[in-house]
Design brief:
alpha/beta; Globin-like; Elongation Factor Tu (Ef-tu), domain 3; Rossmann fold; 3 domains; 6-stranded antiparallel β-sheet; 12 strands
Length: 407
Amino acid sequence: MLSQKSIDIVKSTAPVLEVKGVEITTCFYQMLFSNHPELLNIFNHANQKQGRQQTALANTVYAAAQHIDQLEVLLPAVKQIAHKHRSLGIKPEHYPIVGKYLLKAIKEVLGDAATDDILKAWEEAYGVIAQVFIDIEEEMYKETESKQAGYRGFKEFFVAKKVEESDVITSFYLKPKDGGSVPTYQPGQYITVRLRVDEEEYVLNRQYSLSSAPTKEYFRISVKREAENEPKGKVSNYLHDHINEGDSIDVSAPSGDFYLDIDETNKKAALISGGVGITPMLSMLDTIAQKTPERKTAFIHAARNAKVHAFKEDVKELVAKLDAGELCFVYEDKNETDAHFTGYVNKEVLAKYVDDNTDCYVCGPVPFMKAVVSALREMGMKEENIHFEFFGPAMDMAPEQKETVNQ
């Protein structure tokens, strides 16, 4: 337990952390990787270059300072981060290393303002927070191992089939190299793939949503080639260009807290995706078609145009299996004819498929997610009916600037 003095000191640092947080976390990562470059085998290098990881950690530290006396408030976000950590193989021995350089970064950025009392209070607070993560993650490791075909860490798989789904998305069917089955998972969850890419000093980890309903035979991921923005996606391009049928990759067990509530059959499900965000929605739709086809379901997907729209026919076939299925394709290109709407997913589109008794699942690029979630809130949708998933570290999507913590 933290002393009241430490609680008061940590909470008093919240205003300066709000202003200096990203500067502190940027300094932290520089120190961390300079002294422990082996940790680059775990972290996503692209998120580092884009600054997303630094911003996400700054949000976490800021929220911890605000709620250090009410850690239960942070528990949902802690569990979300813990899922990511478990899928990456984070271990208890990593936490003291992180704590050491986080305190050094606070001192480096704040200078004399980081008094001995402040550093001592934050050292005490970090120890408490780290133990919460360690305990939760160990529970997750044990739960994963206890499942049929479950395992801890990474396991070697091979590519049983490689299928081009669109101009930019390719599916990989992954089977265990030992010939065994794969653990079950919740529709919407993801796996981490770990690759050694040519000319890269460290292994690269990326998390990809599983894009089919659970089977015992394989995992399927459907990967978008990230080639338009800098830095280009090293892993996605390597998978597309160099990983072929028969090749091996290391894969974590499924993880994540964004998934379909299979038992909530009395509520309509709206599966709303943009671009490659369609992948977890496919798993959800496939599961509904197999297990609860009577459930009211709307599938809303936005794409730039038909060429980059993957799984169009698959989705049509799955929706056709439902008793009350609705389908909506939205293309940005106004010249596309095979679209229910052209432009963007907005309140006008959503109002045709969503009501007060709808569970809305949203996934896609950050601008798409922000637009859709904002529209749903403006329509009066309850927060408990809005579920969303980010690729990489989460961004702040809380209404009215309420605090959230992100990985």
